[in-house]
Design goal:
Layout: E1 2-8, E2 17-23, E3 30-39, H1 42-48, E4 65-72, E5 84-87, E6 90-92, H2 98-101, E7 113-114, E8 134-138, E9 143-144, H3 152-155, H4 161-171, E10 179-183, H5 187-198, E11 202-207, H6 213-219, E12 223-226, H7 230-234, E13 240-245, H8 254-257, E14 260-268, H9 281-285, E15 290-293, H10 299-312, E16 318-322, H11 326-334, E17 341-345
Parallel strand pairs: 10-11, 10-13, 11-12, 13-14, 14-15, 16-17
Antiparallel strand pairs: 1-2, 3-4, 3-8, 3-17, 4-5, 5-9, 6-7
Bound molecules: NADP nicotinamide-adenine-dinucleotide phosphate and zinc ion.
Length: 353
């Protein structure tokens, strides 16, 4: 077995602590990765603090992992030692059901194996994620990174925040000539703005934080609306082709649905611990509007997104932290106070006594 060092929470109400554990020796199709950086997703917080229920402790979160290959199993063909790679939210799935065969492993019918909070496909054991110094992952779930090494830390958030916004933007064929809204400027939302802009849309950012207005423009938004201002919201009624809603808390969806044109759609990617109030039926039927949801993205489209970002010079805007600063980072994320993704420098794990 491979000895790994990470940080775990042992209950929903206790802080992170250093945690030693074992990773499996590589199977023939496994890649061993020395993890260098890991992004901090709001899903990590929802899970570790027990907001979603179902957390398995000890819990080592983290599903925005970048690092370097240190060893490969005998049957691995796509990677070699020294390659820069990424691992996102999934480390395994059945690979045989219809969604898996279509490259939509996130919708695997028996269920994919999360990078943390398991369960593994064979024994149902817990999995430990990216807040750790190394990880062993089957080849099919490892992504190639084509950005330069200097961008590595800022590439990490693409593995969840990037793909979770890319997948619905592509599914809804967002592109030139469309007016597209992005609601909530956090980790996901700031990537949504960058990607929708790079796909050629006219992008309007919606924020509850007036302090983020200038940043939203810098991130690529053509217009910014403070969503708590009813008059500013009204000025955009019936004008959007598509809205991507990344908000991590329950809120009234109706003011956003009313902004959609006839046949417009809003996708929910935020998964608040408590449900949103049910939207008004009239807001949907009167203009044949639709409301849908979307879960991360498949492995092939994650690679497509990474390559698109490498080609267009897109990375995340990050605040680098040491592993030991994680509890405070969660507190700030809970207050919508992150510009715009925390990334853990995993070299700091070695400093744990
Ligand atoms: P984040 O960085 O905390 O950003 C969420 C943003 O939502 C905040 O920055 C804030 O933006 C806005 N917000 C927060 N509380 C609000 C409230 N009460 N009312 C209105 N707006 C509020 O979180 P994230 O990492 O981007 O994740 C966002 C959500 O997506 C989480 O629920 C996460 O679990 C979920 N998620 C889903 C998937 C998926 O596959 N569907 C994947 C990853 C994450 P402003 O300050 O601009 O208002
Ligand atoms: Zn995530």
């Amino acid at each position: 077995m491979i000895q790994a060092k990470g940080y775990a929470v042992h209950s929903a109400t206790t802080p992170f602590k250093p945690f030693g554990f074992e990773r499996r020796d590589p199977n023939p199709n496994d890649v061993v990765i020395a993890s260098r950086f890991c992004g901090v997703c709001h899903s990590d917080l929802h899970t570790a603090r027990g907001e979603w229920g179902g957390a398995r402790f000890p819990c080592v979160p983290g599903h925005e992992i970048v690092g370097e290959v240190t060893a490969i199993g005998d049957a691995v063909t796509r990677f070699k030692a020294g390659d820069l790679v990424g691992v996102g939210c999934m480390v395994d799935s059945c690979l045989t059901c219809e969604p898996c065969r279509e490259g939509l492993e996130q919708y695997c019918e028996p269920g994919f194996t999360g990078t943390y909070n398991g369960p593994t496909q064979d024994t149902g054991d817990n999995t430990y994620g990216g807040y750790s110094d190394r990880i062993v992952v089957r080849e099919e779930f490892v992504l190639s990174i084509r950005h330069g090494e200097q961008d590595l830390a800022a590439v990490a958030p693409l593995l969840c925040a990037g793909i979770t916004t890319w997948s619905p933007l592509r599914h809804h064929r967002v592109g030139p000539g469309q007016k597209v809204g992005v609601v909530g400027i956090g980790g996901l939302g700031h990537m949504g703005i960058k990607l929708a802009k790079a796909l050629g849309a006219h992008v309007v950012a919606f924020t509850t934080s007036p302090s983020k207005v200038e940043d939203a423009r810098r991130l690529g938004a053509d217009e910014v609306v403070v969503s708590r201002d009813p008059d500013a919201m009204k000025a955009h009624r019936n004008s959007f082709h598509y809205i991507l809603n990344t908000v991590a808390a329950p809120h009234d969806l109706n003011p956003f649905l009313m902004l959609l044109k006839r046949d417009g759609a809003m996708t929910l990617v935020g998964v608040p611990p408590e449900p949103h109030p049910s939207p008004a039926v009239g807001a949907l039927v009167m203009k044949r509007r639709s409301l849908d949801g979307s879960l991360i993205g498949g492995i092939a489209e994650t690679q497509e997104m990474l390559d698109f970002c490498a080609e267009h010079g897109i990375v995340s805007d990050i605040e680098m932290i040491a592993m030991q600063e994680i509890d405070g980072a969660y507190d700030r994320m809970a207050r919508s106070d992150v510009k715009y993704r925390f990334v853990i420098d995993l070299a700091s794990i070695a400093d744990a006594s």
